[in-house]
Each structure stands twice: as structure tokens, then as C-alpha cells.
Amino acid sequence: MSDIGDWFRSIPLITRSWFAASIAVPFIGKLGLVDFRHLMLVPELVYNKFHLWRPVTATLYFPITPNTGFLYLVNLYFLYHYSSRLETGAFDGRPADYIFMLLFNWICIVITGMLMNMRLLMIPLIMSVLYVWAQFNKDMIVSFWFGTRFKAHYLPWVILVFNFIIGGSFVNELTGNLVGHLYFFLMFKYPMDLGGRSFLSTPEFLYRYFPNKRGGVSGFGVPPSRRPAAQEQAGGGGGGGGGGGRHNWGQGFRLGGE
After folding, report:
1. Exposed, middle or buried by CB within 10 Å (0-12, 13-18, 19+), for 35?
2. Alpha carbons 159 and 250: distance in angstroms, whole number
3. Which distant-in-sequence residues (6+ apart) come within 8 Å of 29 by Cβ?
4. Are 26 and 20 in contact (CB under 8 A)?
5. Is residue 245 over pLDDT 50?
6. How far apart are CA 235 and CA 243, in angstroms?
7. What pLDDT sits at residue 101?
8. Distance CA 30, CA 182 (A)
9. What is the secondary structure of 99-162 as a DSSP string?
10. N or C: which end of the chain has fewer CB within 10 A?
């Protein structure tokens, strides 16, 4: 048990909290401590009865049955693996930015779930995080089941097909991929590679509660930094057009490479 405790404490804080809640809430429903129907997203109850907890619990709850248990465990592993990699890699020392990414993705997924009458939101949020990780590490070669190897850029779509085979649906995975793409495009791709307006930025109050930290592990899929406009002009010699070259999104972390 001490080994399990040590392993659990080694998980970065934000991922650890999300991981623990994604175990606790499904087991609360499984054991009947709370009627599982109260944990699912039901738009009319949110609108009319003000069941404001449902968007949160629907993101953490997953029904554990003989038919769904394997799918649940697989996605719980994806949560642990890729959220840990992001938190200690691209978002290392920047907990506010990572929390903002999770909040943005969660809000988009909740809105989509309300419009599409989706009851469970765990898989979409996990897939959105996995998609962002894959974008930061898109040229890295990853290994999947049966020794298949491909660039991380394709991983979210391979997992979409994989979950469709074992779970019979792809709507959750597709929703997560699209939301992850929206975040990455608005936060990094559009303002940096395409020279467009910056639509997303982490609110200052998150920095007050979760200040940046120095040190830690870095170098695994590090996102580009946004240079101030004055620095752009000083370094660009006339600066027209947003400055040449594309950004390096980082080399990433080799999946399964101990």
C-alpha cells in the first residue's frame, strides 16, 4: 500500500485531484451512496431545477459495469498519463495556465453537451487534454497497441477509432478532439503562426491563486512564448507581417519510454 501511496503522491497536483475525483465519483454512484442519475447531465434539470452540480459531476462520473469497465479504465489511464505529461511538460511551473486550459475545455464541452443532450462528459474532457498534448508533441513517434507506431499528431484519431471499437460510439471522442483543437488554435496557432488576434489569455485572478513556479521538469513539449509587441518591433527590423518562421512546438515525451 505504501508503494501505491508513493505513486499517487508523485502525480502532479492538478492531475492528482482530477484523477482522484474521477475515481471517487464513479464509485459513489456504483455503491449507491448517491443515485447515479443525479450525477449525469440533464439539460432541462439544469435550466429549470437549477441542478448546477450536474455539469461538474457529469465530467467526473462514468458508469462502471461489466460492459463499460474496460473503457473506463482505459480512459482513466489516458487521464493520468497525458494530463501528467502536460502538467509537468508544456505547462510546467504554470498551474494557472493549465487550470485555465481545463476550464476553457470544460466550458466548451458542457455547452456542447447541453446542446447535444449528452449525459456523460468524462471522455470528452480527457480527449481534449490528450489532443492538446498531441499537438505539442506532434512529431514524436508513439507506440500503441500491438506495436503500432505513428506520429503523436495522429494519436487522438487513433484513440477515437479504438474507443469506437470497444465502446460503440465516437461522439464523445470527436467532441473532445474538436474542443482541444479549438483551444490550441485560439491560444497558440492563430495568434502565433498566423499572426492573428489573441482571443484567449489566462485571467489574472488565477495567477493570484496559482502563481507561476520556478524550476521543475521542463523541455517536454514546451509551448512557444508570446513576445511583447515592443520586443517584436525591436528584434524584427521594421517588423512587417508578424515575423518569419513557424514556431517549434517542442520535441515531446516518448510514450512508454522509461
Report:
1. exposed
2. 22
3. 35, 36, 39, 61, 63, 64
4. no
5. no
6. 9
7. 98
8. 34
9. HHHHHHHHHHHHHHHHHHT-S--HHHHHHHHHHHHHHHTTTSEEE-GGG-EEEGGGHHHHHHHH
10. C
The reply to whether the predicted model has a pTM over 0.85 is no
When computed from its CA atoms, the radius of gyration of the chain, rounded to whole angstroms, is 19
Cα distance between residue 19 and residue 139, in whole Å:
27
Percent of the chain with pLDDT over 70: 83
On whether the 3-209 domain is CATH 1.20.1540.10, my answer is: yes
Tally of CB atoms within 10 A around 57: 21
- Residue written as cell 497525458? 82
In sequence order, the β-bridge partners of residue 151 are: 141
Closest among 158, 140, 157, 135 to 148, alpha carbons compared: 158
